[in-house]
Amino acid sequence: MMKGVIYLSDEPKLSPWGAVQYCEEMNKGIYFVETTGHGGIMIKLEYAKEILSPEARRCGFRENGYLNFEEDCAASVAEREFIDKEIWEIPDYVKDKAKYEKSLNNSIKRYFPEYWNEREKRLSVNTYNKRYIVHDFLIGKPIMIDTKAKTLTFYSYNIYGQLYDLRKPEVHKVTTKTINGLIIRTQNYSRYYKKTEKVVDGYIYKYLMNQSQKEQCRTEPKICFSEKITETNDFEQAVRKMCEWSYENNFCGSREEKENDRQQGLQYCENYLKDLEIEVNSSKNNRKKSLLQTLRENKTKVKHPENIKRAVSEKII
Questions:
Q1: Beta-strand (E) ranges in 95-139?
Q2: pLDDT tens, 15-63?
Q3: What's the pTM value of the predicted model, to 2 decimals?
Q4: Residue ranges in the chain assigned as alpha helix (H)
């Protein structure tokens, strides 16, 4: 367990292990403490509920308004969560940060295997490396798959090749229930292809299911006769490519008319993206920051002087 610099703040004076003799503020509301005989990490309960996963909270215990993680074992879980949530960093005075992080993982695997397994499942939820994938879903009607939000979004076009419902498309959320239903339907191989197969199954299987979920399917749903338009991590790029593709394939007119009207015909896409940018910026300015965002920004302010070099194992430093 790492220790660093003492901070003057509203740190706890009493811990589950006795009177606090040393206290380090790892971030706002998060403290590493030591007593004459023991120590650990203490997190204010209102913070713990928002920044820690349910499985991580189960590794700690409540006392005096804090969720506490004992330093020998459970503190590794808390540190792992802090690193994953980007609200704490291994201090610069640690010579081998990779080795230190590996020691955290090994400790968790040994003492808290259930937490480690749940974390692994969380990290493998999305196995596809791009967020936005656009296909020709049905004769010129695009579908956009969002692998992070787990949504399938359907768009429609007019005779000018424009996607007239950019602002209000048909959005379907793919939930755990949806995925479990797909897994169950594939169990009956012959019935699946004759009666229960759905057109969207191939998209869900390929882009929104993790490896563990795919292994439970007895057959692999396919994406049939569907051109991939683009895949990217940039939403604006995905929308532009989709609009350009729709104009090229769905415009009802001569080639000459299509070329002459191209700039005007695609201006609606740029107008939509410009309005969307204004809405997003306005929302950011008006939205109250979440606790997680605040802690991430505060992380850069936490300093660890190089002359303080303390750790449980000298091998780590």
A1: 132-138
A2: 999 999 999 899 999 999 999 989 999 999 999 998 999 999 999 999 9
A3: 0.57
A4: 45-51, 54-57, 75-84, 97-111, 113-123, 176-186, 189-191, 201-203, 211-216, 235-250, 255-260, 262-265, 267-286, 291-299
